[in-house]
Amino acid sequence: MKKTATDVLPAEGGLGNDPLLSVEDLHVEFATRAGLVKAVNGVSYTLSAGETLAVLGESGSGKSVTAQAIMGILDMPPARIPKGAIRFQGTDLLKLSEEARTQIRGRRIAMIFQDALSALNPVFTVGWQIGEMFRVHQGMSKRDAEKKAVELMDRVRIPAAKQRVHDFPHQFSGGMRQRIMIAMSIALDPEVLIADEPTTALDVTVQAQIMELLAELQRESNMGLILITHDLGVVADVADKIAVMYGGRIVENAPVHDIYRRPAHPYTKGLLESIPRVDLKGQDLYAIKGLPPNLLDMPTGCAFHPRCPYRQDNCVTSVPELYEIDPNRSSACHYWREVLDGTDE
Amino acid sequence: MGRYIIRRLIQAIPVLLGSTLLIFATVFVLPGDPIAALAGEKRADPTIVAILREQYHLNDPFFVQYWNYISGVFQGNFGRTFANVEVSEIMAGKFQVTLNLAMTALILEAIIGVGLGLWAALRRGKATDSAILASTLVLISIPTLVTGFVLQLILGVQLKQSFGIDFFPVAGISEGWRSYLVPGFVLAGTSIAYLTRLTRTSLVETLRADFVRTAVAKGMSRRRVVGRHALRNALIPMVTYLGADLGTLMGGAVITESIFNIPGIGQELFRSVYERQQPVVVGIVTILVLVYILANLIVDLLYAVLDPRIRYE
Prior knowledge:
The complex is a heterodimer of chains A (345) and B (313). With 345 residues, chain A is an alpha/beta fold. Chain A has helices at 5-8, 63-71, 98-104, 116-119, 126-138, 142-155, 161-164, 174-185, 204-221, 232-235, 256-261, 266-273, 313-317, 336-341, and strands at residues 21-32, 35-47, 52-56, 79-88, 91-92, 109-112, 192-196, 224-229, 241-246, 249-255, 323-326, 329-331. Chain A has one domain (5-108, 188-341): Rossmann fold (3-Layer(aba) Sandwich). Chain A has an 8-stranded mixed β-sheet with strand order 6-7-8-3-9-10-12-11. The two termini of chain A are 24 Å apart. Chain B has helices at residues 2-29, 34-38, 46-55, 62-74, 87-122, 127-141, 144-163, 178-207, 210-217, 222-251, 253-259, 265-275, 278-306. At the A-B interface, α3 and α5 of A face α9 and α10 of B.
């Protein structure tokens, strides 16, 4: 039953062809003054065209670092990738030269960031910043690039795009700014879009609109979408599958409906139980006890064991591998059966 | 924008009044008699002294004297020296010389300071960075007197004697723009060091910003990320420093002008203080204050150009 992480992942993706993007046993570490921080410890996931993968985890779980490694925007040093591969349509990005990666960045793999106000350049107009994609990557003239920028702003439904193309980021609301980020990222029809907590800085109604927009754009262009978030509520409607990360590893892989119904890892279960529910109104809110692991001093064995209600002696000593539950699911818990059975359907 | 400029100019009036009053008072209480000084070593005839004192209103109370002077200044009349020369005439030529010197210094400062700062920022933590930082410390620590005389000796004298290169004049302004290069560098010395450090810090900080990461993620070349996205933002503190420094350079030219024998306002100011030429001293300082005020106004207006988040009503 024991399998390595890569074996477990389903080779889905349309007609059974290669996945669009696959991360294989990726390790990322940072050299800091305090010591070596192992931020990502053997993460693997795949993404097919038209698919949405939600990567779920709390701060420090390694979800953003993994994404930045895919983009190739980690500062190296201090970051280092001692092991692993990131295959994009079969090519290992980590083996490419910096120039070759610059060709892929922005054009074929694009990314949007959490806080659009700080992620947009304050001294250039939004039209300039969107148009830059066309001017630099396609050698388009200023005038044509601006026309394209207006089209894109229309496409992400920014009202009065024609007038607002000359405005600066600070003149837009949070939701509109995120739309500009999105417009910029989809400018060159990338095959993969990575959204790193795209809605965290927004209020709830705007969050829903942005998620809807992303889902719609994805349907239109059939791009693969990696949605990084710490918010289970955000992903439920749009994701196809979920990878839950903890302490720099994937602890559970599952199709989205399975994970909500029957989590197979104690951490996922804890996350689901800590969502406030109307039918349990008045009762104490569940919280996972303890603190997230210190990346400088990771617990031995399973990183979650100090906080785990299912802990046994071997959890402290042996790192659980990803166990296959069914062809689409896996869990990195020695006691996944107990966790699965302990959840009422 | 226009209203903002007008408001700023109106605000400058009390600053101008205050600073001239202060200087006027300082020269007023200085010991020594300018009329007696006119006669040099000899003792002046008491009747002539009395007539001259009357003619220059030196017997009037302080505030009356100040009022006479300042009302003249607002009409563009800076008065006459005790040798009966128009003060504005004295200042006009000398200001041009000092302005040349200060502008040379400012241009050298901008080129060298920004250049070294960028270089250090892009090689952060490497040997180049440490070397540049160390040399700025040296530049800050050595007084202008030392750099002035040493460079004068090396570039002005020994370059010619040892290598036959006669490019930098030893002193004076007879060689046109070349005369200003070495004095300009000496005058700009510490400012170059500060601007280098400021540029380095500013760019290093900007390179850590989220929008720089976005530019990288957009697939922009490193050259474009640094040169367009980061530099435009890092420029704001640098421009502030450069603008404010113009006034400092003009006011700080006294020592440099005397080392290189440059007939600018620095030397004139020094001589006028020495000779108690009150109208000249106050006139020069008034113009210097004006330069400060205008330089600061221009910097503030440049802010709005460089940073669209700043708007003046």
